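Job type: complex structure
Entries:
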Amino acid sequence: MKILVCISHVPDTTTKIQFAADGKSLNKTGVKFVINPYDEFGLSRAIGFREEGKKVTITVLSVGGPEVEPTLRKALAIGANDAVRINGAPTDAHFVASQIASYAREREFSVLFFGKESIDYNGSTVPGMVAEMLDMPLIPSATKMDLTGDESATFKREVDGGLEVIETSLPVVVSCQKGIAEWRIPNMRGIMRARKKPLSVVSPVDVSPMVVSVGFSKPAAKGGCQYFEVDDTEQLANTLIEKGLI
Amino acid sequence: MAVLLFAENSQGVFKKAVFEAATYGYDLAQKLGTELYAVSVGQVNDEELAGLGAYGVSKVYKVSNSSLNSFGNTAYAAAVSSVAKSIGADVVVMTQSYNGRAVAPRVAVKLEAAPLSGVIKLVDPSNGYVTEKMAFSGKGVETLKPNTNKLVITVKVNGYKIEENATSASIEAYDFKPSSSSLDTIAKEIIKASEGISLTEADSVVSAGRGMKGPKEWGIIEELASLIGAATACSKPVADMHWRPHHEHVGQTGIQIAPNLYIAIGISGAIQHLAGVSSSKHIVVINKDSEAPFFKIADYGVVGDLFVVVPKLIEAIKKYKG
């Protein structure tokens, strides 16, 4: 069974986000980049299938310039078999989804893993677009996945106010939420082997972006914190009541 | 040129987030000099459908084919796209709920429209439909400009102010039969998290962290929450230690929320936690450590022992509520 794990190269969750002086991009100075945490859940789940005795080959894919290769190597160190970098700037969801769909179309992957969103642009749009382009079912925000033979799978997915138990045939696009698997730390042997695993660079298909990122700003600064003494907790309650908050 | 709202129902009723998306759609339709129509898929009674008029919908297209009784993103997206094409809608609006996140990208592909996801501001037709959304998990605001005026917009939950007026919408049955290949998932059952208030939609959230010292003391958190009609939440360490269930975990890797009021009790405010809650409109922080980073984004703060402060707060609110 062939599995494709699509990963984004994003600033580490602890990054203090700063924007370039012109406000057009992220200031990358000193920023550590990692595999998007939600995407990494998909990689972990795929490796889990292998450990359960399923015969799987895992390809990791990222759309981006040479700067994403260390992130792909980390995915190889964790346990993917090979890596693909589609050599184009990931400008918007339409561009990225078109690249992934084009790569996956003739390659007969049974499962396409994504994260439920990337922690940089938070669009949560790419998995659904890929599913539509490839005419596949989409399991959004999956918190559990089990293969039932080679043809189908069962899932739990997050819905408002609970979880839905859902079943579908393969191939399938899955967007991963916490719960589907635990993150893994690569060991030294994995890191050594990753250096020799294949990482191929593929040219992008010609697609124009549909949405342009004009720029960034910091969220409006708060007016500062109004403090209350412990003995004045009642005043806090009164303030919240006056403001209509409770 | 019309604007079409996908009015997603939850067991036959519309929730607040749908009204936010409806108000957004209506405001946009006004700017474009056109009407706001809605499409409802599944079993919703006519009274509920007509009620969408209060948020600016002039007509609801009702798709009630029995094979669409339970949600499936492929078939629902096909139904929404079919209505959009038949009425010539260039803009489709919906809420960025769990289901909206799955339907919108499919509709965008079908209509060859630009997806604008999680927007917090009305698109500006006089300026190339420029709009804004949160980025970097609440640490930034991104300005976006689509290259087309065909749009599929999801509105961030709690991200747009609802306006109501007293009109009702007309209803028209829309005949749509999903293809068998679009019925590609089988929903077996729904496991309810609890009878409590849904975290993502809650107006107020009371959240607690490691400062609670253990799972046994949560009574005061639940009491405060039920007193003010809030949902309860917790920080990641608390969920990891199984003091509270995982579905209550808010933060970067948990649920991201933007309630009107967020009360953080015994949570220091690690950057990953703040990423999930910093869009909250009013933040109250109760923590014994005056250096806790959470105070930097708080509107109101008490530096003190939560086991003293929270009971006092409960007492004061009870006094007011009589």
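Summary: The radius of gyration of chain A is 21 Å. Residues 2-217 of chain A form a domain with the Rossmann fold fold (CATH 3.40.50.620).
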